Amino acid sequence: MAYIPLCKLRNLMEGEAAPFNVDGREIMVLWPEGGELKAYDGLCPHQKIPFSRGVFNGRYLTCTAHDWVFDGRNGECRQGQDCTLTTYPLRVVEGMVEIELA
What we know:
The chain has one domain: Rieske Iron-sulfur Protein, CATH 2.102.10.10. It is built from no helices and eleven strands. It has strands at residues 3-8, 17-22, 25-30, 38-41, 55-56, 60-63, 68-71, 77-79, 87-88, 90-93, 96-100. Strands 2-3-4-9 form a four-stranded antiparallel beta sheet, with no helix packed on it. Strands 5-6-7-8 form a four-stranded antiparallel beta sheet, with no helix packed on it. Strands 1-11-10 form a three-stranded antiparallel beta sheet, with no helix packed on it. The model has no long low-confidence stretch (mean pLDDT 96).
């Protein structure tokens, strides 16, 4: 599958999160402090609550529905069921962030 333009890199800030809807899929882009830009499935695996309602503190993403906590650097669940968020490949081309949805 081909990469799809998501947004301009200058619109994202280190330590912050940004929700997107891409081809009907909820995507959450995180830029952990001191880390790399990451794209994850935008729905909590517990009850499919959108992470756009969650809280990102620069390192951890918390689903506010039941306080499941995910590491923004690798998507691993730190509090809740043993699971890892689905990760989507990202790249930056000429200042544009692009995502590949497999």
